[in-house]
Amino acid sequence: MLIAVLASLAAGVIGTYIVVKRMSLIAGSIAHTAFGGLGISYYFHANPLIGAVVFSLAASSSVAFFRKKARNRLDTLLSALWATGMAVGLVFMFLTPGYATDLFSYLFGNILLVSTVDLIMIVVLDLVIIIAVLLMFNPFLAVAFDEEYAEVRNLPVLVVDLILLGLIALTVVTIIRVVGIVLMIALLTMPAAVAQLFHKTVKGMMLTSSLITLFATISGLFLSYLINFSPGPIIVLIIAVIYISSILAAQVRNTRRMKRMRAR
Asked: Which domains does the chain have, with CATH numbers?
Protein backbone atom coordinates (compact mmCIF):
# COMPACT_ATOMS: atom_id res chain seq x y z
CA MET A 1 0.00 0.00 0.00
CA LEU A 2 2.86 2.37 0.81
CA ILE A 3 4.53 1.59 -2.50
CA ALA A 4 1.21 2.22 -4.28
CA VAL A 5 0.95 5.69 -2.74
CA LEU A 6 4.60 6.61 -3.37
CA ALA A 7 4.62 5.32 -6.94
CA SER A 8 1.32 7.04 -7.75
CA LEU A 9 2.60 10.38 -6.51
CA ALA A 10 5.80 10.20 -8.54
CA ALA A 11 4.10 8.87 -11.68
CA GLY A 12 1.29 11.44 -11.51
CA VAL A 13 3.61 14.43 -11.12
CA ILE A 14 6.34 13.48 -13.60
CA GLY A 15 3.91 11.76 -15.97
CA THR A 16 2.20 15.12 -16.46
CA TYR A 17 5.44 16.64 -17.77
CA ILE A 18 6.00 13.60 -19.99
CA VAL A 19 2.56 13.99 -21.60
CA VAL A 20 2.70 17.80 -21.90
CA LYS A 21 6.20 17.74 -23.39
CA ARG A 22 5.46 14.61 -25.47
CA MET A 23 8.41 12.63 -24.13
CA SER A 24 6.86 9.17 -23.88
CA LEU A 25 9.50 7.66 -26.18
CA ILE A 26 12.27 9.24 -24.09
CA ALA A 27 10.71 7.89 -20.89
CA GLY A 28 10.43 4.41 -22.42
CA SER A 29 14.05 4.50 -23.51
CA ILE A 30 15.26 5.53 -20.04
CA ALA A 31 13.14 2.78 -18.47
CA HIS A 32 14.61 0.04 -20.65
CA THR A 33 18.15 1.37 -20.23
CA ALA A 34 17.73 0.95 -16.47
CA PHE A 35 17.61 -2.83 -17.00
CA GLY A 36 21.36 -2.76 -17.70
CA GLY A 37 21.98 -1.37 -14.22
CA LEU A 38 19.65 -3.95 -12.71
CA GLY A 39 21.60 -6.77 -14.34
CA ILE A 40 25.01 -5.48 -13.25
CA SER A 41 23.88 -4.90 -9.66
CA TYR A 42 22.31 -8.35 -9.52
CA TYR A 43 25.56 -9.91 -10.77
CA PHE A 44 27.58 -8.20 -8.01
CA HIS A 45 24.94 -9.03 -5.35
CA ALA A 46 24.07 -5.35 -4.78
CA ASN A 47 20.62 -3.77 -4.54
CA PRO A 48 19.35 -3.77 -8.15
CA LEU A 49 17.64 -0.38 -7.67
CA ILE A 50 21.05 1.27 -7.14
CA GLY A 51 22.23 0.09 -10.55
CA ALA A 52 18.92 1.17 -12.07
CA VAL A 53 19.38 4.69 -10.67
CA VAL A 54 22.91 4.96 -12.09
CA PHE A 55 22.01 3.65 -15.56
CA SER A 56 18.76 5.63 -15.88
CA LEU A 57 20.47 8.87 -14.79
CA ALA A 58 23.29 8.22 -17.30
CA ALA A 59 20.68 7.66 -20.03
CA SER A 60 18.73 10.81 -19.12
CA SER A 61 21.94 12.89 -19.11
CA SER A 62 22.88 11.56 -22.56
CA VAL A 63 19.46 12.46 -23.94
CA ALA A 64 19.59 15.95 -22.38
CA PHE A 65 23.01 16.74 -23.88
CA PHE A 66 22.39 15.30 -27.35
CA ARG A 67 18.69 16.16 -27.83
CA LYS A 68 19.41 19.62 -29.23
CA LYS A 69 22.45 18.69 -31.30
CA ALA A 70 21.01 15.46 -32.73
CA ARG A 71 17.40 16.58 -33.10
CA ASN A 72 16.95 14.72 -36.40
CA ARG A 73 18.60 11.59 -35.03
CA LEU A 74 17.09 11.55 -31.56
CA ASP A 75 15.06 8.44 -32.35
CA THR A 76 18.30 6.63 -33.26
CA LEU A 77 19.92 7.64 -29.96
CA LEU A 78 16.87 6.51 -27.99
CA SER A 79 16.74 3.19 -29.83
CA ALA A 80 20.46 2.65 -29.14
CA LEU A 81 20.04 3.36 -25.42
CA TRP A 82 16.94 1.16 -25.29
CA ALA A 83 18.59 -1.84 -26.97
CA THR A 84 21.99 -1.46 -25.25
CA GLY A 85 20.49 -1.26 -21.76
CA MET A 86 18.41 -4.38 -22.32
CA ALA A 87 21.36 -6.24 -23.85
CA VAL A 88 23.71 -5.38 -20.96
CA GLY A 89 21.07 -6.46 -18.44
CA LEU A 90 20.47 -9.77 -20.21
CA VAL A 91 24.22 -10.51 -20.49
CA PHE A 92 24.80 -10.03 -16.76
CA MET A 93 21.60 -11.90 -15.97
CA PHE A 94 22.85 -14.97 -17.83
CA LEU A 95 26.33 -14.61 -16.27
CA THR A 96 24.80 -14.73 -12.77
CA PRO A 97 24.78 -18.30 -11.39
CA GLY A 98 21.33 -19.79 -10.88
CA TYR A 99 17.96 -18.62 -12.17
CA ALA A 100 17.45 -14.86 -11.83
CA THR A 101 13.81 -14.92 -10.75
CA ASP A 102 14.13 -11.62 -8.87
CA LEU A 103 15.45 -9.87 -11.97
CA PHE A 104 12.47 -11.02 -14.03
CA SER A 105 10.20 -9.39 -11.45
CA TYR A 106 11.77 -6.05 -12.41
CA LEU A 107 10.83 -6.67 -16.03
CA PHE A 108 7.14 -7.34 -15.40
CA GLY A 109 6.77 -5.91 -11.91
CA ASN A 110 5.53 -7.40 -8.65
CA ILE A 111 4.47 -4.95 -5.98
CA LEU A 112 4.31 -7.84 -3.49
CA LEU A 113 8.08 -8.41 -3.58
CA VAL A 114 9.16 -4.98 -2.30
CA SER A 115 11.69 -5.22 0.53
CA THR A 116 12.19 -2.78 3.40
CA VAL A 117 15.40 -1.51 1.77
CA ASP A 118 13.53 -0.91 -1.49
CA LEU A 119 10.81 0.96 0.37
CA ILE A 120 13.30 3.26 2.12
CA MET A 121 15.07 3.97 -1.17
CA ILE A 122 11.77 4.73 -2.92
CA VAL A 123 10.77 7.12 -0.11
CA VAL A 124 14.05 9.01 -0.61
CA LEU A 125 13.57 9.13 -4.39
CA ASP A 126 10.01 10.37 -3.94
CA LEU A 127 11.18 13.17 -1.66
CA VAL A 128 13.84 14.23 -4.18
CA ILE A 129 11.25 14.29 -6.98
CA ILE A 130 8.65 16.30 -5.04
CA ILE A 131 11.16 18.83 -3.64
CA ALA A 132 12.71 19.37 -7.10
CA VAL A 133 9.30 19.93 -8.70
CA LEU A 134 8.28 22.40 -5.97
CA LEU A 135 11.52 24.37 -6.35
CA MET A 136 11.53 24.38 -10.18
CA PHE A 137 7.83 24.35 -11.02
CA ASN A 138 7.89 27.52 -13.16
CA PRO A 139 11.09 26.68 -15.12
CA PHE A 140 9.73 23.18 -15.82
CA LEU A 141 6.46 24.75 -16.97
CA ALA A 142 8.23 27.14 -19.34
CA VAL A 143 10.43 24.46 -20.90
CA ALA A 144 7.58 21.96 -21.16
CA PHE A 145 5.31 24.32 -23.12
CA ASP A 146 7.72 26.49 -25.14
CA GLU A 147 11.47 25.90 -25.14
CA GLU A 148 12.19 28.68 -27.64
CA TYR A 149 10.40 31.26 -25.50
CA ALA A 150 12.27 29.98 -22.45
CA GLU A 151 15.58 30.49 -24.29
CA VAL A 152 14.58 34.02 -25.28
CA ARG A 153 13.89 34.73 -21.58
CA ASN A 154 17.47 33.59 -20.84
CA LEU A 155 16.34 30.48 -18.99
CA PRO A 156 19.08 27.76 -18.82
CA VAL A 157 17.08 25.31 -20.92
CA LEU A 158 19.80 22.65 -20.99
CA VAL A 159 20.09 22.63 -17.19
CA VAL A 160 16.32 22.53 -16.75
CA ASP A 161 16.06 19.72 -19.32
CA LEU A 162 18.83 17.83 -17.54
CA ILE A 163 17.04 18.08 -14.18
CA LEU A 164 13.64 17.18 -15.65
CA LEU A 165 15.01 14.13 -17.45
CA GLY A 166 16.86 13.17 -14.28
CA LEU A 167 13.55 13.26 -12.39
CA ILE A 168 12.02 11.04 -15.08
CA ALA A 169 14.88 8.60 -14.48
CA LEU A 170 14.22 8.61 -10.71
CA THR A 171 10.49 8.12 -11.32
CA VAL A 172 11.29 5.12 -13.50
CA VAL A 173 13.19 3.54 -10.62
CA THR A 174 10.39 4.44 -8.19
CA ILE A 175 7.70 2.55 -10.12
CA ILE A 176 9.76 -0.36 -11.47
CA ARG A 177 8.51 -2.62 -8.68
CA VAL A 178 4.85 -1.82 -9.39
CA VAL A 179 4.43 -2.73 -13.07
CA GLY A 180 7.98 -3.46 -14.26
CA ILE A 181 10.01 -2.03 -17.12
CA VAL A 182 7.91 -3.57 -19.89
CA LEU A 183 4.59 -2.06 -18.73
CA MET A 184 5.96 1.10 -17.13
CA ILE A 185 5.17 3.50 -19.97
CA ALA A 186 1.46 2.93 -19.36
CA LEU A 187 1.73 4.20 -15.78
CA LEU A 188 3.73 7.24 -16.90
CA THR A 189 1.47 8.36 -19.74
CA MET A 190 -2.14 7.11 -19.64
CA PRO A 191 -3.23 8.62 -16.28
CA ALA A 192 -1.74 11.99 -17.25
CA ALA A 193 -3.38 11.76 -20.68
CA VAL A 194 -6.75 11.17 -19.00
CA ALA A 195 -6.18 14.14 -16.69
CA GLN A 196 -5.32 16.32 -19.69
CA LEU A 197 -8.78 15.69 -21.16
CA PHE A 198 -10.48 17.33 -18.18
CA HIS A 199 -7.97 19.90 -16.88
CA LYS A 200 -6.37 23.01 -18.33
CA THR A 201 -3.78 23.50 -15.58
CA VAL A 202 -0.67 21.46 -14.87
CA LYS A 203 -1.43 21.32 -11.14
CA GLY A 204 -4.90 19.93 -11.84
CA MET A 205 -3.38 17.33 -14.18
CA MET A 206 -0.84 16.27 -11.56
CA LEU A 207 -3.46 15.81 -8.85
CA THR A 208 -5.93 13.91 -11.06
CA SER A 209 -3.19 11.78 -12.62
CA SER A 210 -1.87 10.80 -9.18
CA LEU A 211 -5.36 9.88 -7.96
CA ILE A 212 -6.07 7.79 -11.09
CA THR A 213 -2.77 5.94 -10.67
CA LEU A 214 -3.43 5.38 -6.97
CA PHE A 215 -6.93 4.03 -7.67
CA ALA A 216 -5.64 1.69 -10.41
CA THR A 217 -2.74 0.47 -8.29
CA ILE A 218 -4.77 -0.30 -5.17
CA SER A 219 -7.75 -1.79 -7.02
CA GLY A 220 -5.37 -3.82 -9.20
CA LEU A 221 -3.62 -5.09 -6.10
CA PHE A 222 -6.88 -6.32 -4.53
CA LEU A 223 -8.23 -7.71 -7.82
CA SER A 224 -5.03 -9.64 -8.50
CA TYR A 225 -5.32 -11.14 -5.00
CA LEU A 226 -8.92 -12.26 -5.68
CA ILE A 227 -8.11 -13.92 -9.01
CA ASN A 228 -4.63 -15.09 -7.97
CA PHE A 229 -2.79 -13.24 -10.75
CA SER A 230 0.28 -10.99 -11.06
CA PRO A 231 -0.63 -7.39 -10.04
CA GLY A 232 1.36 -5.55 -12.75
CA PRO A 233 -0.74 -6.46 -15.82
CA ILE A 234 -4.01 -6.03 -13.87
CA ILE A 235 -3.00 -2.50 -12.83
CA VAL A 236 -2.17 -1.57 -16.42
CA LEU A 237 -5.44 -3.04 -17.73
CA ILE A 238 -7.43 -0.99 -15.21
CA ILE A 239 -5.61 2.16 -16.35
CA ALA A 240 -6.28 1.21 -19.98
CA VAL A 241 -10.01 0.85 -19.28
CA ILE A 242 -10.04 4.26 -17.56
CA TYR A 243 -8.15 5.79 -20.50
CA ILE A 244 -10.48 4.39 -23.17
CA SER A 245 -13.58 5.28 -21.15
CA SER A 246 -12.31 8.83 -20.66
CA ILE A 247 -11.67 9.30 -24.38
CA LEU A 248 -15.21 8.12 -25.17
CA ALA A 249 -16.65 10.38 -22.45
CA ALA A 250 -14.70 13.35 -23.81
CA GLN A 251 -15.97 12.62 -27.34
CA VAL A 252 -19.59 12.50 -26.11
CA ARG A 253 -19.10 15.75 -24.20
CA ASN A 254 -17.62 17.51 -27.23
CA THR A 255 -20.41 16.23 -29.48
CA ARG A 256 -23.07 17.58 -27.10
CA ARG A 257 -21.26 20.89 -26.89
CA MET A 258 -21.17 21.18 -30.68
CA LYS A 259 -24.90 20.43 -30.92
CA ARG A 260 -25.67 23.14 -28.36
CA MET A 261 -23.56 25.67 -30.26
CA ARG A 262 -25.34 24.82 -33.52
CA ALA A 263 -28.74 25.07 -31.81
CA ARG A 264 -27.91 28.58 -30.66
From this structure: 2-263 (1.10.3470.10)
